[in-house]
Amino acid sequence: MKLNKLGCTLLFALSSSTQAGLLGLDLIETGDNAVSDITSSLVVAGGGVNVVSGSEVFMGAIGDGIDGDTAQSGIFSGVDITDGATTVSMGQGAVLTSGTANIPSTNSFSSFDPFTPFTGGDADLTAILDAAGAPSSATDDVNYIEFDFTLDAGFNAISLDFIFGSDEFPDQGVTDVFGVFVDGTNYAFFPDGSLVSFVQGTNAGNFLDNTSGLFDIEYDGFSKNLNLVGLVDESLSEHTLKIAIADTSDLIFDSGVFLSNLTGVYTVNDGGVNNPPTASVDEPFSALLFLSGLGALVGLRRRR
């Protein structure tokens, strides 16, 4: 059942001692203003990022208000994923998925794909897969938010926190992918420099293993709370931000990304091509990410 947005804070206060996983989930359903709900949940008030009104574009399946699985996106009051020993958390934000945003707080599906959005592919995600040498760059079930923005004086970049989860982990060779494009350049990478996706035999170290179901989230694997920094093109007065996720090659074994804390920042380019430092929120995943560190994606196998 959809939660009333005005009740999210109260719900969190009343149930934070027992509720875990995705807190205060409010699915994007019929009658909601998807772009307003998502941007207001992501953009930190007074944080230096100013959305240009009317520029917002949303692509994703809107829930029908009857079956919660038909909503591809949602907003939340917080994330608190734990197995009792390790906890991954973030504040309020939005979730984008390649399937449904109605993500259970238990891992009970061997292949989490209860809903197929059929929203089509995405040229920007396809391009970064091609550039990385992925054996397949055919995308589908895309979910994205895109808008123009300005930055307050003194800022030259945006900062965004994210947690990526996938049922592709740990044994699927198909590469569901997440990207954050600032003025056309993708800045979403794992600490090892790989694209934000699961690549069997290559980047499993970026994921916490939930195949035993000890964590209170559906996804078989998920990342720590990571942070990315994306430089704007300072020759432009207005900038474009696109945040996107999609299935790759197939329509199953879905993935999702939790997003929070979109702000403006100032960073010094290290001499790379539009390449600011990117640091993890949680140790020991802190790292400087370099575009030049991207290796070819190898050892992929297709799901049978």
Feature tags:
about 10% helix, 3 helices, eight-stranded antiparallel sheet, mainly beta, disordered N terminus, about 300 residues, seven-stranded antiparallel sheet
Task: Tell me what you see in this structure.
There is one protein chain. This protein has three helices and 18 strands. The chain is globular and about 50 Å long. Strand 6 (78-82) and strand 7 form a beta hairpin. The longest helix is centred in the first third of the chain and has 9 residues, at 34-42. It has helices spanning 8-15, 34-42, 123-131; strands spanning 21-23, 26-27, 49-51, 57-59, 73-76, 78-82, 87-90, 93-97, 139-151, 157-166, 177-182, 185-186, 196-197, 208-209, 221-222, 226-231, 239-248, 255-265. Residues 1-19 and 279-304 have low confidence and may be disordered. Strands 2, 5, 8, 10, 14, 15, 16 and 18 form an eight-stranded antiparallel sheet that branches. Strands 3, 4, 9, 11, 12, 13 and 17 form a seven-stranded antiparallel sheet that branches. It has one domain. Helix content is 9%, strand content 31%. With 304 residues, the chain is mainly β.
Structure described in brief:
This protein has 304 residues and is mostly beta strands. Helices cover 9% and strands 31% of the residues.
Topology of this protein?
Layout: H1 8-15, E1 21-23, E2 26-27, H2 34-42, E3 49-51, E4 57-59, E5 73-76, E6 78-82, E7 87-90, E8 93-97, H3 123-131, E9 139-151, E10 157-166, E11 177-182, E12 185-186, E13 196-197, E14 208-209, E15 221-222, E16 226-231, E17 239-248, E18 255-265
Antiparallel strand pairs: 1-6, 2-5, 3-9, 4-9, 5-8, 6-7, 8-18, 9-17, 10-15, 10-16, 10-18, 11-12, 11-13, 11-17, 14-15
